[in-house]
Known about the structure:
The complex is a heterodimer. Chain A has helices spanning about 30-35, 50, 55-70, 90-100, 130-145, 170-180, 190-200, 200-205, 240-250, 270-275, 280-285; strands at about 5, 20-25, 45, 70-75, 105-110, 110-115, 120-125, 150-155, 160, 185, 215-220, 225, 230, 255-260, 285-290. By secondary structure, chain A is α/β, with parallel strands linked by helices. In chain A, helix 5 crosses helix 6. Chain B has a 3-stranded antiparallel β-sheet, with helices on both faces. Strand 9 (about 160) of chain A pairs antiparallel with strand 1 (about 35) of chain B, so a sheet runs across the interface.
Amino acid sequence: MNHAIRFVMPASPYNGYTDYGVGIGLRVPHYRHILEKKPVVDWFEIISENFMVDGGRPLEVLEAILEQYRVVQHGVSLYFGSADPLNREHLKKLKRLVQRTRTPWLSDHLCWGSVDGSYSHDLLPMPYTLAVAKHTAEKIRQARDFLEVPICVENVSSYAEFHQSEMTEWEFLAEVVEQADCGILLDVNNIYVSSQNHGFDPFDYIRGVQAERVGQIHIAGHSRYRKFILDTHDHPVPDPVWDLYAEVIRRCGHTATLLEWDDRIPSFDEVHHEALKANRYLHDTPALVSC
Amino acid sequence: MSAALFRPLAARDRMQSIWEDGRMTEEVVAGFIKPNDRLTALERLEIYNRQYWFRLLDCLYDDYPGLRSLLGWRRFHRLCKAYLTRYPSRSWTLRNLGRQLPQFIEEAPEFTTPRTVLALDMVRFEWAQVLAFDEAHLPPLRVDDLLGSDPSQLCLGLQPHLSLLELSSGVDEYFMAVRKENEERQHGTASQAHGSAPQRRSASRLPQPKLQSLQLVVYRYDAQIYFKRIEREAYLILRALRDGLPVSQALETALTEADASADWTGKIQSWFEIWAALGWFCQTPTKPLSS
């Protein structure tokens, strides 16, 4: 049997058996450039909530994008970890969007963010306990069953830890995704930020993740303050995050990768150029396949 | 944690030092948040407390530039803090954050006095723009659809993105002047990334809106938001149609106190032609057009 080296993105049930490469977030300051210049981009990630509307420019732009590009949805308010049940109206609007975009998978965060119907609009960490893992996994299953699309859950960056926690964050993540039987959106910048804020080895985190469940990776920049790091998504990806990314690729294989740049957004070309740096790690780690 | 998160910030954007029951906040927070080698438990939770307020205040700053200019930065900031304390976000989308702001201004005029009338006009006008941006646009009825219909039976719906406003001041002209003044000032894009406190702007030197009775329609056309002053009789017709009256009754209601010497037939025909061309009319869900 002959073996050839091809750069293969591992298709899995958690990314809808797709082979997506390096993508960037679809952001308002870049709309005109994308629609006029039609740059070659492997895929765009959209924030679901920005397009869960009934009309207007957001949907007009989305339709134009969908004509030319592949799109994956990323949400920020399902709040799998909140004690509140999933919001039915939210799920219905989200499902309409899923059907419109034909996203091969959908992601949201391993966090809570609402209580008694009041929303924080933030991604808040949870105590890492078995009871919380069970509750969170149940909500992920409910969402997946309703939306009928694979779900990847993303690790958040955090600035606080709870006395109540019984395990590490990566053990908690593993527990949740096993019980929910869902995928992981592994955010390596968030791992780095949390590792610096909480004093753990980020490589321990990566080693503790089930590689076969990683359906997507996020990379991003952050802001360093005197006593903590803030996950600001407003800088290029720093070297320590690239080092983590290289390790994830080594363990997981080539995986759909998305650069997040959400604030002080530079030109499209600058953001895309930064995202494509991921290819040097992907191309350095070929996957052996039969041919 | 949620109780701590939603509490308004104290001076210099710090977490309040005294808890609701009189204990030191530091003592309460230390009961569930771990400190680390650089930050106390309070300091760690304070990051989230500040981000909650910065994010939501930033959203209101972006959505209500006219109100902000009218009241001045300091009073607008106090109004928003009080508003969010009284009406925390009850929606998964920040788009709806200002939905109850008109109600709050009426309930608590002390935050806007002596400009409460102007503030109410401006906030209603700016909320109407939020609706115009992304509410649905239903299949419009054209003039041809209406020909031959019995006006005593014909009910016309108005597009969901269209708002009818009866105002006491020229806030539309003031808003355009504010927009022009702001064009050179930079805003950060809204994002899920962590940000900083909303930046204070230098005081506007624009003259206050003129007190005058006027009727305004805010709507969307070809993906752009427009606002159009209309005559009082036109407003009354549209309001009656929106309220479900058939065309003939709507005309009767609108012209009850109109100047009898004017050529209303010609005017009304012209209005209906323009409104139909702009796509304002749609079928009412309860009384669809009979063929």
